[in-house]
Design a protein that fits this description.
Blueprint (H helix, E strand, L loop, with lengths): L17 H16 L3 H10 L4 H15 L5 H12 L1 H19 L1
């Protein structure tokens, strides 16, 4: 039965590196400048179970999206979507200034 021990094991949660945090902060700032912070946070939270599928869709669409984004940016975005900790950090960044503005 040793062969089946890790057959269906999901990867552990990854830690968000400082470089990724900087990228996510910059992205959150761009989203908030367009007054779309709460909409983006709602969309990310409501589609959390589908992030794995979304990242694979980005891999599939990479040839078409290469006109808009570099390959490194696409790879970074795919890895961030697959990491639940990174998505949580991004949502917190989107909500950070929104909650300060409400007070």
């Amino acid at each position: 039965m040793g062969i089946w021990k890790n057959a269906f094991k999901l990867p552990g949660r990854g830690v968000v590196a400082e470089e990724e945090k900087k990228f996510l902060r910059d992205l959150a700032l761009k989203v908030k400048k367009r007054s779309m912070g709460s909409v983006a946070a709602l969309a990310l939270e409501s589609t959390r179970p589908l992030h794995g599928l979304g990242s694979q869709a980005l891999v599939f669409l990479t040839p078409m999206l290469s006109a808009l984004f570099s390959g490194a940016e696409m790879e970074r975005l795919v890895k961030l979507l697959e990491n639940p900790e990174a998505v949580t950090f991004f949502v917190e960044e989107l909500d950070a200034d929104i909650t300060k503005a409400d007070k």
